[in-house]
Write a structure and sequence with these properties.
By secondary structure, this protein is an alpha/beta fold. The chain has ten helices and eight strands. Helix content is 40%, strand content 19%.
């Protein structure tokens, strides 16, 4: 389904019956990032997924490179489909968007699952995001090879999943401007981390990290959990960054336990 929402047309999907759970994908992905967790969730939940601004089949609009805009996109889409509140599960970039929305719109978030994500970005990571955004701006011929190499790295804990990951990411970033926009939003977490605002999150919260995640290691999850009162921390063994793919059933169970 496609819905006009603010300055973009949002591509979104709905399956299943029950209490609503919104799934937010990560950088360079689209809704298919949740492909391995979805079957168990739809048995008892109304699952809603959407492609982020400039990712997948959602248009770019007047992108401003901020996490604020991406968080407001989520709430505006919920308004447009008549969804007053929901459990929100965010993976990687999706987790930062979920945190931003939970801080700014606490009345809309029933519960929060933050998966393989971070509330801050160090100098080295900020430079990584900056360089990739600049590659898009100058139409660097090495961009596609760089994105493919990044995909291989992020699926490094499950090499068998690289092929599917490449197919999804190449499709979602066919127009890479949305990817660059999200990179700029993540780069901004270096100067403006979410840490000082985490205490404003009141939704019951689950923070999940993979034991072998080099992108958002367990320490990042510990920082988030320490900042959100009453949150629960889960470390998934033998999991790299792409936990929803590597351990889809486990992630579904964790979300279900949170959603009640």
């Amino acid at each position: 389904m496609v819905l006009a929402c603010r300055d973009i047309e949002v591509s979104w999907y709905e399956v299943g019956l029950g209490e609503p759970v919104v799934l937010i994908h990560g950088l360079a992905d689209d809704h298919r990032a949740w492909r391995k967790a979805l079957p168990d969730l739809v048995l008892s939940r109304r699952v809603l997924l959407y492609d982020l601004r400039g990712h997948g089949a959602t248009t770019l609009g007047q992108a401003d490179g901020t996490l604020q805009q991406l968080g407001d996109d989520l709430i505006a889409w919920m308004d447009a489909i008549g969804l007053p509140k929901a459990t929100i599960a965010g993976f990687s970039l999706g987790g930062t968007i979920a945190m931003r929305a939970a801080i700014d719109h606490p009345e809309r978030i029933t519960a929060l699952a933050l998966i393989a994500t971070s509330s801050r970005v160090g100098k080295a990571a900020a430079e990584w995001y900056r360089l990739r955004a600049e590659m898009v701006v100058r139409n660097d011929p090495a961009l596609r090879d760089t994105l493919d190499a990044d995909t291989a790295q992020v699926y490094g804990n499950r090499p068998a999943e690289v092929s599917d990951g490449l197919e999804i990411r190449r499709s979602s970033t066919r127009d890479p401007r949305g990817y660059a926009n999200a990179c700029r939003a993540m780069e901004g977490l270096n100067a403006r981390p979410l840490d000082p605002e985490l205490g404003e999150i009141r939704a019951r919260t689950l923070v999940v990290a993979g034991s072998a995640d080099a992108n958002c290691p367990p320490r990042a999850a510990e920082i988030i959990a320490a900042g959100i009162a009453g949150s629960r921390l889960e470390i998934v063994d033998d999991a790299g960054h792409t936990i929803p793919v590597e351990h889809g059933g486990r992630i579904a169970d964790l979300i279900l336990s949170l959603a009640g």
